Amino acid sequence: xxxxxxxxxxxxxxxxxxxxxxxxxxxxxxxxxxxxxxxxxxxxxxxxxxxxxxxxxxxxxxxxxxxxxxxxxxxxxxxxxxxxxxxxxxxxxxxxxxxxxxxxxxxxxxxxxxxxxxxxxxxxxxxxxxxxxxxxxxxxxxxxxxxxxxxxxxxxxxxxxxxxxxxxxxxxxxxxxxxxxxxxxxxxxxxxxxxxxxxxxxxxxxxxxxxxxxxxxxxxxxxxxxxxxxxxxxxxxxxxxxxxxxx
Length: 247
What we know:
Layout: H1 4-15, H2 19-35, H3 40-50, H4 53-64, H5 69-79, H6 82-94, H7 99-107, H8 111-123, H9 135-159, H10 170-181, H11 188-203, H12 211-229, H13 242-246
Helix pairs in contact: 1-9, 2-4, 2-9, 2-10, 3-9, 4-5, 6-8, 8-9, 11-12
């Protein structure tokens, strides 16, 4: 019989190895935010409330470049559109929860929390009935990342320019997302979406206000959806995705 404690600590343990990449990323954000001229309370407040590393990093960079506020909001919105896909993927496993739980888990939903949660739920494929405490796994993963994100962000803000460039902390961001990406490349639409997004990001590097990132996200989504509609799904006989099982 599953228990809340076992599920919660299972989520915590699953998140721990990923922190090796996300904690340096939090420090990088803190350093970037202060170097961009954001007040300390604003830099820390973004981590407390927004809690979306990629969009925080992009927002700080755009702020430093004097980007209009409308463009900053639009860019961060597009960057975070992937969370809608994460939510749709987790919905079959969490739809039995009440609204308060859904709001809490939605706030804590990140790339890293999603990666460990969906892996855990797919390994225990049966959709949980009402009262099953499996959602505590997502809570454990999300809380672990949220707490460490606040600590690492604060460290970056306090250290600021004292961290030498030779540490190469920015490289850990790429490593973290590569580690999260590879296990998700399970079918042709997903692979195509990743390839198209990567190519578009490289091609659009010279666009002003980092709009190349927006173009890359939209191009990747369009490619993946188009491939799905064209029938490029998993080979016949392969397990269906959570979305397919509920359609």
